[in-house]
Amino acid sequence: GSSDSDSEIFTHGELVTSAIMYGTIDELSSDNHEIINVDHYKVYCEEDEDDIGLVDVLDRICSVLENKSYKIANISLGPEVPAPDDEPNLWTSTLDKIAGDGSILLVIAAGNTGGILKNSPQDYDLARIQPPADMLNGLSIGAANSNADIWERANYSSVGPGRRPGYVKPDALFFGGDDEPTGDKLRLLGLYDFEEKLKFGTSYAAPLVTRLAARLDNMTLGKMNVATLRALLIHSTESTSDKKGCGWGRITDSIENYIFCDDNTVTVIYQGTLTKSSGVRAAIPCPESLKISKTKIDLAATLCFYTEVDHKHPVSYSRAGIEVTFRPHSEKFKINKETGKMALEANTRALFNKENILGNEQNLRKDAHKWETCYKVNDVFQASTINDPALDIKYLTRDEGHALTSKEMASLPILNYSLVITLRTRKNTNLY
């Protein structure tokens, strides 16, 4: 019931909603254009401008999320402060708790403070992502400056890293318009006057990703869980060496690329829940014809899961983790040189390790990657080196940074996860 005379606030919310419903104006003329149903909630008014923490705004958002059942939600606002390294912001910890069961995909705008780096690179911390974009259980979206093949982080897009865990933030970029005078802008449709609006900002990149997730959910008839939707978006990214600015890269905007594979490519999705520490073994399909083909295989794997959080212990913020072990050949075992005994499990290949996931950051713990809730890895190997390959997925737990007791282990909360694997052969093998 708050009165609001500030037209900029209305315009912001109007265009965020338009981006989800219609996408960009360029999409309107496509044959497969889809209108997405949206519930729009007004949560910000003039009176909130005096509260730097926007606590009342957060309360309004939580009231909606706790009383309604949504699979996907977009948040394109938050406190205008950089994400802290230590104790998480109230927005972050509160929304992480709500999303921790894996029932909702929260897509968050990363913030528009990256432009600080242009003139004051020494003020890097002020350009970092803004809460709640540092959420563990959310998908934070920065802005790319172009939809073309050549792109980079838009100058204004806030940068990472995030906290630990949650180090690779923003999770990814999407075209959000260029702030340079001659740069490409987003062409959005005004909902009140149906006029074209030229805009840029992570506030608009995020809802375009929200739209993409909703379309993906519709095309698959709702059969994919929230972790899979999030994993597929990250899996689609065009990688970049600038993880602190771009996260895992720029998300692919073509919906067909998520659903269909070419003749030499196959994507396998493992989704479900883990309820005990023993975990599961996921077999990777490997036809006999592939084993004898003289080709290299490109493997891409993306893992995503949801976890309860402990805001009182920032270093051990995530209460659950996942350890993934890649066993490429089921008939190759190590022999203990001292005892002469053969190992019980097939040999492993380094894939889901700290270096591949987080790089060579020296200030991170050896097992830091196991508590990250979303990450992507890549590998290349000869087809002749695999035979009935498999991935072992193990549920890890901790409470206040310590291992759980046997009694606590017996009543572990359900952990929603998804693992997306793509195999691509470099020669024509008709793999699909």
UniProtKB/TrEMBL annotation:
<dbReference type="InterPro" id="IPR000209">
    <property type="entry name" value="Peptidase_S8/S53_dom"/>
</dbReference>
<dbReference type="InterPro" id="IPR034074">
    <property type="entry name" value="Y4bN_pept_dom"/>
</dbReference>
<dbReference type="Pfam" id="PF00082">
    <property type="entry name" value="Peptidase_S8"/>
</dbReference>
<dbReference type="InterPro" id="IPR036852">
    <property type="entry name" value="Peptidase_S8/S53_dom_sf"/>
</dbReference>
<comment type="similarity">
    <text>Belongs to the peptidase S8 family.</text>
</comment>
<feature type="domain" description="Peptidase S8/S53">
    <location>
        <begin position="7"/>
        <end position="249"/>
    </location>
</feature>
<protein>
    <submittedName>
        <fullName>Peptidase S8</fullName>
    </submittedName>
</protein>
<dbReference type="GO" id="GO:0006508">
    <property type="term" value="P:proteolysis"/>
</dbReference>
<dbReference type="GO" id="GO:0004252">
    <property type="term" value="F:serine-type endopeptidase activity"/>
</dbReference>
